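Hi support team,

I've been running sequence recovery on a batch of backbones for a student project. Most finish fine, but this one hangs at about 90% for roughly twenty minutes before it completes. I'm not sure whether the input is malformed or the queue is just slow. I've pasted the structure tokens below so you can try to reproduce it. Let me know if you need the job ID as well.

Thanks,
M.K.
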């Protein structure tokens, strides 16, 4: 990947310039990582859970009620 840096007069790196496609992939990967972290946290919680179909039904009913 071709990466460019913006530096100050002393040569310290201040910012990075990268291709937009690489930026978008990086953002997607970070979002996926957030999902994994949320899943791991939920598994540790040991709170009671409900089947996904039931959850979707509850969400849909609430949306229609508002």
């Amino acid at each position: 990947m071709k990466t460019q840096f913006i530096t100050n007069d002393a040569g310290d790196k201040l910012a990075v310039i990268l291709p937009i496609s690489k930026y978008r992939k990086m953002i997607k990967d970070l979002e996926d990582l957030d999902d994994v972290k949320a899943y791991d946290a939920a598994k540790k919680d040991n709170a009671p859970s409900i089947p996904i179909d039931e959850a979707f039904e509850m969400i849909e009913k609430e949306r229609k009620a508002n």
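--
Follow-up from support: It reproduced on our side and the slowdown came from queue contention, not your input. The chain is about 60% helix and 15% strand. No action needed from you.
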